[in-house]
Amino acid sequence: MKRDGNKIRAWLVERRISVSDVARDAGIARSVVSETIHGRRNNRKALRALVAVGCPPRLLALPEDMKAQQAA
Fold first, then answer.
1. In terms of residue numbers, what domain contains 49?
2. Helix 44-52 vs helix 30-37: angle between axes, to the nearest 10 degrees?
3. Which residue of 4, 6, 41, 51 pairs with 35 in a disulfide if CB–CB is 3.0 to 4.6 A?
4. What single DSSP character describes residue 20?
5. Handedness of CA 21, 13, 61, 64 (dihedral sign)
6. Distance separating alpha carbons of residues 53 and 17, to the nearest angstrom
7. Cα–Cα distance measured from residue 66 to residue 13, given in angstroms and rounded to the nearest whole number
8. How wide is the angle at C-alpha 68 spanned by C-alphas 60 and 72, nearest 5°?
9. How many C-alpha atoms does 71 have within 13 Å on its Cβ side?
């Protein structure tokens, strides 16, 4: 499954969570989070921060190694 950045952004907007908030929580640049949201990157810190704010893993198309962590 390919990551749909528009759905992830809509989810964030509905909950009034900014990409900058996620980046700050993860301790990484906003651009890294944005690129991860839109599938141009697969940054694990960004993905973990998105999961931590409640973003549904099904929207994130998590890499296999992170799916195993979610199930544990």
1. 5-71
2. 80
3. 41
4. H
5. positive
6. 8
7. 24
8. 115
9. 7
| Gap between the Cα atoms of 7 and 26, Å rounded | 21
Count the domains in the chain.
1
Contact status, residue 50 vs residue 16, Cβ threshold 8 Å: no
Q: Using CB atoms within 10 A of its CB, is residue 5 exposed (0-12), middle (13-18) or buried (19+)?
A: middle
Q: What is the pLDDT of residues 16-72, one digit of tens each?
A: 999 999 999 999 999 999 999 999 999 999 999 999 999 999 999 898 888 877 655
Cα–Cα distance list, 64 to 7, 61, 68, 71 (Å): 21, 9, 6, 11
User: What CATH number is given to the structural domain containing 40?
Assistant: 1.10.260
How far the first Cα of the chain sits from its last, in Å, is 21
- Which residue reads 């909950």 in tokens? 15
